[in-house]
Amino acid sequence: MFEFALEAQHGAARAGVLQTPHGSVPTPVFAPVGTQATVKAVQPRELREMGATLILANTYHLYLRPGDALIADFGGLHAFMGWDGPLLTDSGGFQVFSLGEIRQIDSDGVTFRSHHDGSKHRFTPEKSIQIQHNLGADIIMAFDECPVPNERGAVEAALERTHRWLHRCLDEHLRSGDPDRQALFGIVQGGIFADLREQSVREVTSLDLPGYAIGGLAVGETKAQMYTTLELTTSLLPVNRPRYLMGVGSPEDLVHGVARGVDIFDCVLPTRIARNGAAFTRTGRINMRNLRYATDHDPIEPGCTCYACRTFSRGYVRHLVKAGEILGHQLLSLHNLHFLLTLMRELRAAIVDGTFDDYAAAFLATYEPVTGTQEGVNVPPVG
Amino acid sequence: MFEFALEAQHGAARAGVLQTPHGSVPTPVFAPVGTQATVKAVQPRELREMGATLILANTYHLYLRPGDALIADFGGLHAFMGWDGPLLTDSGGFQVFSLGEIRQIDSDGVTFRSHHDGSKHRFTPEKSIQIQHNLGADIIMAFDECPVPNERGAVEAALERTHRWLHRCLDEHLRSGDPDRQALFGIVQGGIFADLREQSVREVTSLDLPGYAIGGLAVGETKAQMYTTLELTTSLLPVNRPRYLMGVGSPEDLVHGVARGVDIFDCVLPTRIARNGAAFTRTGRINMRNLRYATDHDPIEPGCTCYACRTFSRGYVRHLVKAGEILGHQLLSLHNLHFLLTLMRELRAAIVDGTFDDYAAAFLATYEPVTGTQEGVNVPPVG
Fold this sequence. Notes:
The structure is a homodimer.
Chain A: E1 4-10, E2 13-20, E3 23-27, E4 29-32, H1 44-49, E5 55-57, H2 59-64, H3 68-73, H4 77-81, E6 87-89, H5 93-97, E7 103-105, E8 110-113, E9 120-123, H6 125-135, E10 139-141, H7 152-176, E11 183-188, H8 194-205, E12 212-214, H9 223-236, E13 243-245, H10 251-259, E14 264-267, H11 269-275, E15 278-281, E16 284-287, H12 307-311, H13 314-322, H14 326-353, H15 356-366
Parallel strand pairs in A: 4-14, 5-6, 6-10, 10-11, 11-12, 12-13, 13-14
Antiparallel strand pairs in A: 1-2, 2-3, 7-8, 8-9, 15-16
Helix pairs in contact in A: 6-7, 7-8, 8-9, 10-14, 10-15, 11-14, 13-14, 14-15
């Protein structure tokens, strides 16, 4: 189980397949985020229809509501949320550290207050793994600390803690879990410092885990720093294990990440911007509230094969968004997820065909990224 | 076109089929409401899946936003909203009269202010019909006045106006419309007064229209008064024309209405209560927020064949509702609409089988209606 086979490579870019107990995941892959056990405004059958193969859910949120023991009683997250495909849960660490004023870190774990009711809780590496066992996702993540990426002292301290905690996570997983049913991925930290990334890769990969995540990126560093760090880190990671870049999912970052050897991505961006009335297109992001779309008979993106584009005009979608209708959220969420999943399928096909460089260059030449915003990177997703 | 054929009768209850340019409608039928050109949180393909055959949209809302001329430019409401089945629009009268302080009625029409921006507008019988021509629904409604049902003086005045306006509506429809493409239904008023209902039926049916609505009910009178008035009115209406009871759609009222010879119903109730976390079941309405459902593995209603019940537990639906997730609205809307559509199909089958009395009695014996609330009746739907 959790076999990862590479099918083709083109430069650093890789096309592979990851086996899981709930099906195989062709990589590179984008995982839609279902924070509270639902991808917002999207049904599981629609995720299948658009070709989603891996869904992420958040341990912090589900621990607080409805509770991981309750979900276990329903047979785990797959059964609870009606998604029988592969699932991934994060460790809860990133959300808990994002709580700022209402959390306290010590060498053993983190004490925090619920953002719902202020009640007091504590996560340790063991606790995070136990919760993730209850949730039962195919891929589970080590409990790590994600510091500000360009403060060396803080990064060093977090690194030391992250590595100690990784051993505790693995021990707990081997003690009370089932590694044939759930794969524990380690997380490489080290901020933007090359020597710390090298040190982290060395320590994390010494445990020979079924996959490795690249943490601590897209949290405040520049895009150039992110790409450089990514390039270095993937060059050090073992070829035969999937690499997961956490919380990254703007179209341009997916292309740059795949070009640098990343296999797995996740991000709330496609569903979050949908709720603001924005849609991905090949030339950049458009906001459907714009008056210019009121009389526009074209679909959101001409040529797109998603349900929204097969069925409705921009004029209608604009009307829904302006009128505050839920169907507007639904259609834009469907379209944006379909857009990123299609992009990943095309990137994968280009790797297999040996045309990845051309495809990536052509995409980046026409796609205008959004700049000067924190959207598309790891903004604290609590609340 | 708009041929109405009766297939079976059982007492006053009737099973028929109404032909429209966009398909046939087996009656009795419940029409889901798509106020702003969308049934809230439900996709057109899902309406098809659950067997909806007739959808209602609101002239007042669509006139203000996005505008009926814009919808005409998209080829009419069917094309605009992606629903190629039969459509019905109301006249806008009920909404405009519900505006209270911000509307003024005169003998020629109604001047009102938009609930969006306070801008000034005027509806006349001609204007309402012109808007409905632009929208292009299969069934359009006469512009009438709906008074408080038990104030005789107000009802008499409204009746006189409604009849004068009906002639103007028909003249405008014949002048600028296409009666083969759109059927104009007249509306019987008269409050709870038998002699006024008789007078209204006489005047309205003298125009030999393709269908007749029963207006001015479920607006404040008692249920007993409503059923008595309904019984009288349908007994006076021509047998070979469909009867439409406007704005009524609680499960018990559907059964009582069908028993009294009503063919068409519409109501926002199923989608409105869905947004409050409530679900229809055969024993009454349940609120999914209730703690008792947290650990409940059953579907919303055991035996129900809707997507929500085929796929998810009450525990999961409760989690979605408590977490404020859009998917909760979606699933409860699907279930509640499916519940009413199934009820109507079963009522129809029972009429055809000659078992209607037994079916109706059995349903009413187990279904506990909600009392002491204005839900399920014509509450002003503006906003």
